Amino acid sequence: MKAKLSLVSAAILGATLTLGTLPAHASLPVAVDGQQLPSLAPMLEKTTPAVVSVAVSGTHVSKQRVPDVFRYFFGPNAPQEQVRERPFRGLGSGVIIDADKGYIVTNNHVIDGADTILIGLLDGREFEAKLIGSDSESDIALLQIKADKLTEIKSADSDAIHVGDFAVAIGNPFGLGQTVTSGIVSALGRSGLGIEMLENFIQTDAAINSGNSGGALVNLRGELIGINTAIVAPGGGNVGIGFAIPANMMHSLVDQIIEHGEVRRGVLGISGRELDSKLAEGFGLDSQHGAFVNEVMPDSAADDAGIKAGDIIVSLDGRKIKSFQELRAKIGTLGAGAKVELGIIRDGKNRTVKVTLGEASNQTAEADELHPQLAGAKLESTSKGVEIMEVQEGSPAALSGLRKGDIIVGVNRTAVKDLKELREQLKEQDGAAALKVLRGKSIRYLVLR
């Protein structure tokens, strides 16, 4: 059976311990035959109060363009689109990262579209939360509650963890109440899964189930190493392959949200690919780890730093880079203006370059923000124009003829190079707008009415 990726949160394989208001170690013996037993209970007593349940409710709004034939029969005053509303409820988890300010981190997909967000603490108290900001590309959201006597969780350096390290996951699976599971870190730097736009996951043999999303992945000292996010779920349940967003990545995003109210993503200004065996052999390298630079954008941060096409980026601030996807995720979660040091290989020689990241210009958008007939598509500014990253089947965007991978390079007779220019041009069009689309090596026009 083909594995299915599901946006639900993590917990770890092993004996599952459900925590309520009783002490976590209530059923565990202290010693057997005078021999002290190892137990996670002391650590959990300090850590579990920092993990909360997140209950959301809201209304999903879907828009669908009314076919021309219906407007013909019902006259010029007939609505151009049909709007449907459907109430929803959901459950997830969250982690208190600042007790004084009441900051709670969870997944964006847990609170996406919610009108009401209710936080449940381990001691039974409940508070309505305010959404401070979120980032859909990395699936992080920051909430805030006004409460006293909160417990926060301290973070470890998630770049310093290793495969084989023990890990403990805490969350709220299926709304059962706080649940703890244990296991190990089974892989690092997982990407290319198609779960998020920016992927650099910690993989764990966590028992991940619905409702654990946004919960804590901690080490044996009770320090946060990741935010549990997704699983491979062939039958809809846990099979022992779970993914968590690294704590360092989360904190970088949260710091931007706190400072700016949004993520101001840093940009290096390169396009590239993974370093495979053929490329490594061609460049005389023993290792296949690194990010190969295909192109450097003019006047970009990479160009200013002297990076060239053909360079191989092998480290970021002294940490090894395994793949181009890992580099993309780490750069993409650093803020604009961040200063980094890249280790590169050029002509077989190692060197380092210092780079000040540029600022992305409104890189992504839901297309229905731009035009009703683009609903169901997700757009991103790239070096070639505005790329169609996703198209929902049967959506107005699909019916308009757009496909994943299309690149919008113009509106009517005006060229556009990013989302900002596309938005401006579509606003100026009172009637039909013809999108100039690059598909493969051919150009075509798609008309929006």
Key structural traits:
7-stranded antiparallel β-sheet; disordered N terminus; 449 residues; mainly beta
Would you give an account of this structure?
Residues 1-28 have low confidence and may be disordered. This protein has 449 residues and is mainly beta. The chain contains 9 helices and 32 strands. It has a 7-stranded antiparallel β-sheet with strand order 9-8-5-6-7-11-10. Strands 26, 27, 28, 29, 30, 31 and 32 form a 7-stranded antiparallel β-sheet that branches. It has a 6-stranded antiparallel β-barrel with strand order 12-13-14-17-16-15.
Summarize the structure.
Belongs to the peptidase S1C family. By secondary structure, this protein is mainly beta.
Chart the SSEs and their pairings.
Layout lengths: L4 E2 L10 E2 L12 E2 L2 E2 L4 H7 L3 E15 L2 H7 L6 E18 L4 E4 L1 H4 L2 E7 L5 E3 L1 E6 L4 E5 L21 E6 L7 E12 L10 E4 L11 E3 L5 E9 L9 E5 H14 L5 E2 L2 E5 L2 H6 L8 E6 L4 H5 L6 E5 L2 E2 L3 H10 L5 E8 L2 E8 L1 E2 L4 E3 L10 E5 L4 E6 L4 H4 L7 E5 L2 E2 L3 H10 L4 E7 L2 E7 L1
Antiparallel strand pairs: 1-16, 2-13, 3-4, 5-6, 5-8, 6-7, 7-11, 8-9, 10-11, 12-13, 12-15, 13-14, 14-17, 15-16, 16-17, 18-25, 19-20, 20-21, 21-22, 21-23, 23-24, 26-27, 27-28, 28-29, 29-30, 29-31, 31-32
What proportion of the residues form beta strands (DSSP E)? 35-45%
Average of per-residue pLDDT values: 82
Total count of helical runs of at least 4 residues: 9
Q: What is the CA-CA span between the terminal residues?
A: 43 Å
Helical/strand content category: mainly beta
Largest sheet: 7 strands, antiparallel
| Gross morphology | globular
* Contiguous runs where pLDDT drops below 50 for at least 5 residues: 1-28
In the sheet with the most strands, the strands line up as: 9-8-5-6-7-11-10
The Rg value, from CA coordinates, equals 24 Å
Helix amount, in percent?
10-25%
How many beta-strand segments?
A: 32
